[in-house]
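RECORD TYPE: inverse folding
INPUT: structure tokens
STRUCTURE:
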């Protein structure tokens, strides 16, 4: 299940619970993200995995991958909070594809992730 915790301008904060399904992506997440992209061009996404999140159904994983590839240049910032170690690795792999800034945070760093997702883009170091 996906629950929208907060949405403001181009920022959306999402909490994942139980097992994420194709319906979660098709009915909640993808329409919301596509609307934000249409309105703002680029979006910032905070994806928090609660202790009660038990991963993705295969169809939901595929939805996530397809959406990420289709919109890889439409993300300004992505923060992933919590989850098992493999989620951190998958996020780092996805960061190679996505043009925006991507960071992972431990489950106890939700407040830090919220501050980061709302902060200005960091200038590249030359």
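DESIGNED SEQUENCE:
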């Amino acid at each position: 299940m996906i629950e929208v915790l907060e949405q403001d301008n181009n920022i959306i904060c999402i909490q994942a619970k139980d097992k994420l399904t194709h319906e979660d992506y098709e009915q909640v997440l993808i329409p919301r993200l596509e609307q934000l992209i249409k309105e703002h061009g680029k979006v910032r996404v905070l994806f928090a995995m609660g202790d009660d999140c038990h991963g993705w159904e295969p169809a939901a994983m595929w939805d996530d991958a397809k959406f990420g590839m289709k919109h890889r240049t439409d993300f300004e910032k992505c923060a992933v909070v919590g989850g098992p170690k493999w989620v951190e690795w998958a996020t780092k792999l996805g960061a190679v594809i996505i043009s925006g800034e991507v960071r992972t945070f431990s489950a106890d760093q939700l407040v830090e992730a919220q501050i980061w997702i709302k902060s200005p883009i960091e200038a590249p170091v030359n």
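NOTES: The chain has one domain: 2-118.
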